């Protein structure tokens, strides 16, 4: 019997960095056991810094697009994971989820300064998301 993959929706405010990286990480490391998606309260664009730091891991998210929650309509997900910084942002809400989790991840797009400083912030967010995915979803 074919078991359906666990459907996971990652949410943040703009669907430009954190949720995009989380979608790509789970798609790369979760295999056929997971179907990974992301959305935000507004659609913008996938940040080039997010694309760059994912390429460092051999993961290409350049084909992913920024989407709003409306993109998914009445779809139901097994896991809904908000990845916004709860202390500083209003996290989006989506009713169609069986289980909910929150991972507080600071928005790397808010970091100003040199390219090196911005990329370091994106790497930190990427690595934090990877740890959450490996321990909480993949059981590693």
Please name the fourth-level CATH homologous superfamily. Response regulator
* Average pLDDT rating: 91
Helix/strand order, N-terminal first? EHEHEEH
What would you call the shape? Answer: globular
Number of domains: 1
CATH class: Alpha Beta
Compute the gyration radius: what is it?
14 Å
Q: Sheet bearing the most strands, described?
A: 4 strands, parallel
Counted by DSSP, the helix tally is 3
Number of DSSP strands?
Answer: 4
Report the uncertain regions: none
Strand order of the largest sheet: 2-1-3-4
Could you please describe the fold and organization of this structure?
By secondary structure, this protein is an alpha/beta fold. The chain has a single domain, classed as Rossmann fold (3-Layer(aba) Sandwich), CATH 3.40.50. It has 3 helices and 4 strands, in the order E-H-E-H-E-E-H. A 4-stranded parallel sheet has the order 2-1-3-4, with helices on one face. Strand 1, helix 1 and strand 2 form a beta-alpha-beta unit. The longest helix has 23 residues. It is globular and about 45 Å long. GO terms for molecular function: oxidoreductase activity; protein tyrosine phosphatase activity.
């Amino acid at each position: 019997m074919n078991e359906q993959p666990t459907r996971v929706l990652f949410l943040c405010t703009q669907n430009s960095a954190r949720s995009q990286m989380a979608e790509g990480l789970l798609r790369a490391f979760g295999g056929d056991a997971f179907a990974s998606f992301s959305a935000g309260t507004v659609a913008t664009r996938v940040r080039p810094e997010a694309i760059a730091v994912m390429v460092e891991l051999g993961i290409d998210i350049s084909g992913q697009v920024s989407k709003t929650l409306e993109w998914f309509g009445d779809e139901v997900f097994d896991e809904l994971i908000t990845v916004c910084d709860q202390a500083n942002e209003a996290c989006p809400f989506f009713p169609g989820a069986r289980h909910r989790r929150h991972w507080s991840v600071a928005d790397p797009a808010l970091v100003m300064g040199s390219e090196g400083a911005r990329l370091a912030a994106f790497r930190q967010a990427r690595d934090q998301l990877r740890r959450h995915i490996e321990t909480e979803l993949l059981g590693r």
